[in-house]
Amino acid sequence: MSTDAPKPGLLSRLFGGGKPADTVSAAAEAAPKLSWWQRLKGGLARSSTSIGQGITDLFTKKKLDAETLEDFEDVLIRADLGLTVSARIVEAIGKGRYGKELEDSEVKAILAGEIEKVLTPVAKPLVVDAAQRPFVILMVGVNGSGKTTTIGKLAAKFRSEGRSVMLAAGDTFRAAAIEQLKVWGERTGATVIARDQGADAAGLAYDALQQARAENTDILMIDTAGRLQNRAELMAELEKTVRVIKKLEPSAPHAVLLTLDATVGQNALSQVEIFGKIAGVTGLVMTKLDGTARGGILVALAEKFGLPVHFIGVGESVEDLETFTADEFARAIAGLD
What global pTM score does this model have? Predict the structure, then answer.
């Protein structure tokens, strides 16, 4: 474990919101523990409310016609579900129902069913191959996507499963990212490999892999600097990190997870495309679904790329990042109980 003590200010900002420990503890005890379904539904409330309002406005006490379906397609497109999926949904709603009045619940059920069809093939948990030790996970994504925090949350999950974890602070451009990983290391009992700000990221990844091998560590997660996908020189450095890892272990990285911020909407599509070419993305983690009314972007991504979606996040706590399940997400975004 890192011997560097985390800065108290950062620790309190990450885990205590700057409040005294006893206040945070009392608040935690007073708040009822919500199930994942409750947190997911609450996190997707902005998206489901936006779509649900469209259903109420368009379908209530009206006979179904082509204009209504066209208007509802616009609602779905604005929720970032994508043209293809939106068209498929309105086609399913209209099938055999023209000239009839539809209940909100019927429209929502069809909506959920069609979304689930798209998401089921990509809802795949991350499988850690125990034969690969360390199992190397390279974390990529742009600044602000929640990548470093996601690493910490995943470290907590892996540690709770009894696995040994090492974190490599490969975002050497930001001192805050290095400190943040050290805090997560202290919190989860994971070993942290870090260098000074500005150190060579590829060299750090190489050193971390060597040490993880020597210590027989189960999982090595490597953070990387937040890359703007239109900055060619930064993407070239990410490519270099991948090459260096492969020199030491040809099969690594065993997983390349792209962290996406749901609030960026359609921009997520270009991020997946470009990071896929540079780093060979194997799976997605979608964060900040609670911060947007356009949570349908996950559906559009699934339709276009078919990449596994391993985890989704609907809040800041460790419990708010969970394995992705298609049926629950579809029901939550459609506003079903």
Answer: 0.89
